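Hi everyone,

Forwarding the result from last night's run.
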Amino acid sequence: MMRSAVGLIGRGQRLGQFDQGDAAELASCYFAALGGLAMMSFTLGDRFVAPNPAMLTNFLIKEGTGAGDPTGR
């Protein structure tokens, strides 16, 4: 799964849709955030408030590309 995410991020960078940076590092950050959210959900139960999915991808997606924005902006 990690290898696939690194490849996907690298492809997005080559297409100019994702911000530059080490693709493996960015993938690690993404999965660490997901893991943290899973742990919080488990720990907090009904008190857990899930973030907007865009909050998890904003550090990856290059601003102004419209990628990841449901409005296409």
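The chain has a mean pLDDT of 90.

Cheers,
N.
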